[in-house]
Design brief:
Elements (H helix, E strand, L loop, with lengths): L2 H9 L5 E6 L2 H4 L3 H11 L4 E3 L11 H8 L1 E8 L7 H15 L4 E7 L3 H6 L3 H9 L5 H15 L2 E5 L3 E6 L5 E5 L13 H18 L4 H7 L5 H14 L2 E5 L6 H12 L5 E5 L2 H8 L1 H12 L13 H8 L3 E5 L5 H8 L2 H4 L5 E6 L2 H8 L6 E3 L5 H12 L4 H6 L1 H11 L3 H11 L4 H13 L3 H12 L3 H14 L4 H8 L5 H10 L4 E3 L2 E3 L2 H14 L6 H10 L2 H5 L3 E3 L12 E6 L1 E3 L12 E3 L11 H24 L11
Parallel strand pairs: 1-2, 1-3, 3-4, 4-5, 8-11, 8-12, 9-10, 10-11, 15-17, 16-18
Antiparallel strand pairs: 5-6, 6-7, 13-14
Length: about 650
């Protein structure tokens, strides 16, 4: 394995800590080491530091475990490092881990010359003189070898005039000269120390950047996400703010989370705010803003005066920030956090916003709709693979035997990741009969767990929008838009409602027809059943028509029974509140009851009521006679009977 492969293996391994710091407490605990530790933690880099003031003669097992459970060891060689047997034992264990390809070691030579450490000269020679009488030759040799090995590694050298990141076995040394006015003493961090801290943090962050184990863990069990990551990163590289849009259960949050984890180490500060809509609903926008700025300013849990943020925003302006606002429902949620972001977000900062509402993202991002990434459903192969991952894990034999029923279940989910994952997990380790049973059950009653996720978009609609969505779900899916408009546009707002439903990813328009995902349709059916004001299932319609109940009839507003070829009669509709009655194609209808239409008084008064109703019934009789004639003479067609 070459060095690059070895580093990649270490960086992608699952460890509790990213960094272990080995240091001599009396030299740097209150100065350089404390500032380095704080900077690593504030950048989201999990770091272990043994902050006990008193140490025993032997290194503890807990400390050894901490070293083993870290990807990097930062060894801070200071003047008195070698005077501590504890530090030297730590170093021996660290070098052993490195030689076993289990850890990356980074030395920092803090006001000591690397050659003194390598050859044990100066203060390091003095330390060994004192230790020689108390320790065996074998232990002394282990310490010397560890110091020599570590001093030949690439690391940082800081002195009173400069620091550098160097490969000490190479003749090439890159120096960063920084003039200072005061010596590096005491608890206050100097300009030289501050620069070195930034250098170390940025180096480690860069190493972790593309190989974060959290990213690897997040991507486990995900299918088809790599292209979406590439597409989103391409957008981010060209713009400070991008949006992710799509219906519920599609994976907007997951995509944002993977990108966030993959790149957050490149930034000076970061914040991922989940479920913004729900947080505002439960706790209010002030709580949300406190949480947001608390994370960005590394003051989480502390009170922040939101009315006086000028100084804090000035600090943020000088930082490169990564921000994710997840599930924004309206523009006010964005404005409570980022209304004046152009003042305090610099050009290197990036913002990702997820929403189910395309119009909200348009308002936030501006004219360039190309900066809104519309997440797509999985194709058939991706959907099948995702389902298999959760339903059958790695059982290849089971995959081959369950292909047919698996495809039926995948077809039911129609490429929606949430549905595929829920179904797969539910069926894992179950017998094939259970799979068949669930499939039959789903055709009658969909799973509530993913319907509730989809219903969040519906809950954000107003009354008119909800009604038109339910009408499309129950009656008009797949119908031409103009045809549906003729029926439902009773107040002139149909077009704007359709725009809202499209923007909220509840419907689509394909070749002029209104379409929606099967699971959204079933969600609409589930809601409509609870409201009990729509009839679209044959047995329910037959029940109402046969019962002829006044209560059922009074609520009828639209009656569309077109092409009901076995329909022979209708109930008494004189008590109904009809706006529309469609019976074309009802070739068995032989009689028509009294009928009352909504707003009939607009066209009928006491003087002409009998005349209007006479003409209506006469027209219905002609229609019935025509249908009878068609039944007796199948060769006749409408063209022959125009006159």
């Amino acid at each position: 394995m070459d060095d690059d492969d070895n580093q990649l293996s270490i960086l992608t391994s699952r460890k509790k800590y990213a960094v272990f710091i080995s240091f001599r407490g009396e030299d740097t605990r209150s100065s350089f080491t404390s500032h380095l530790y704080k900077a690593l933690i504030s950048n989201g880099i999990e770091t272990y530091i043994d902050d006990r003031l008193e140490r025993g003669d032997q290194i503890s097992k807990a400390l050894l475990h901490a070293i083993d459970d870290s990807r990097f060891s930062l060894v801070i060689f200071s003047k008195n490092y070698a005077s501590s047997s504890w530090c030297l034992d730590e170093l021996v264990h660290i070098i052993k881990r490195m030689e076993k390809k289990k850890q990356i070691v980074l030395p920092v030579f803090y006001h000591v010359d690397p050659s003194d450490v390598r050859s044990q000269k100066g203060s390091y020679a003095d330390a060994f003189v004192k230790r020689k009488k108390s320790y065996s030759d074998s232990i002394i040799q282990q310490w010397r070898r560890a110091l020599t090995t570590a001093s030949n590694l690439s690391g940082w050298h800081v002195s009173n005039t400069r620091f550098s990141f160097s490969n000490f076995t190479s003749t090439t040394v890159i120096h960063c000269n920084i003039s200072i006015n005061t010596p590096l003493l005491g608890a206050n961090i100097s300009r030289n120390d501050a620069e070195l801290v930034d250098e170390i943090v940025n180096y480690i962050r860069g190493k972790l950047r593309y190989t974060s184990s959290s990213t690897s863990n997040l991507k486990q069990g995900l299918v088809g996400i790599d292209k979406s990551i590439q597409d989103l990163c391409r957008l981010l590289s060209n713009a400070p703010i991008v949006g992710i849009c799509g219906m519920g259960g599609l994976g907007k949050t997951t995509l944002a989370e993977v990108v966030f984890e993959q790149f957050r180490h490149q930034f000076d500060g970061h914040c991922f705010l989940r479920n913004v809509k729900e947080v505002v609903k439960k706790h209010g926008s002030t709580y949300l803003a406190q949480e947001f700025f608390g994370r960005l300013l590394s003051n989480k849990g502390k009170y922040i005066d939101l009315e006086d943020l000028d100084i804090e925003k000035e600090r943020l302006y000088h930082k490169k920030l990564l921000i994710v606002l997840d599930d924004i429902e309206n523009i006010s949620e964005h404005d409570s956090l980022l209304r004046d972001s152009r003042v305090w977000l610099n050009s290197e900062s990036k913002v990702i916003i997820t929403s189910r509402n395309l119009q909200v993202l348009r308002n936030i991002i501006g004219d360039d709709e190309k900066l809104i990434y519309n997440l797509k459903l999985l194709d058939e192969d991706e959907a099948l693979e995702l389902f298999y991952l959760h339903a059958l894990k790695k059982n290849k034999i089971a995959r081959e035997s369950c292909t047919e029923i698996s495809r039926e279940l995948v077809n039911y989910a129609q490429g929606l990741p949430l549905a595929l994952i829920v179904l797969g997990r539910h069926l894992y380790s179950k017998r094939e009969e259970v799979w068949q049973s669930l499939l039959m059950k789903l055709k009658v009653e969909p799973d509530e767990s993913f319907l509730q996720v989809l219903k969040m978009s519906f809950d954000g609609l107003d009354v008119k929008e909800k009604n038109i969505f339910l009408d499309i779900a129950c009656f008009f899916r797949g119908e031409k838009k103009y045809y549906v408009k003729e029926i439902l546009d009773d107040c002139g707002c149909f077009d704007i409602v359709i725009e809202v439903l499209v923007d909220k990813c509840l419907i689509t328009i394909c070749e002029g027809r209104l379409q929606m995902h099967d699971l959204l349709k079933e969600m609409g059916w589930s809601i409509a059943r609870g409201l009990n004001n729509r009839l679209w299932i044959a047995k329910d319609i037959c029940h109402v028509l046969r019962s002829n109940s006044d209560q059922d009839v009074k609520t009828l507003k639209y009656v569309i029974l077109s092409h009901s070829k076995k329909l022979t009669c209708l109930p008494d509709l004189s008590q109904a509140n009809l706006q529309l009655l469609r019976l074309h194609g009802c070739t068995s209808l032989l009689e028509l009851p009294p009928i009352r239409f909504h707003n009939a008084h607009d066209i009928i008064n006491a003087e002409n009521e009998s005349e209007v109703m006479y003409k209506y019934h006469n027209l219905m009789l002609q229609l019935i006679n025509y249908m009878k004639l068609m039944m007796m003479n199948p060769l006749l067609n409408a063209q022959n009977l125009e006159n």
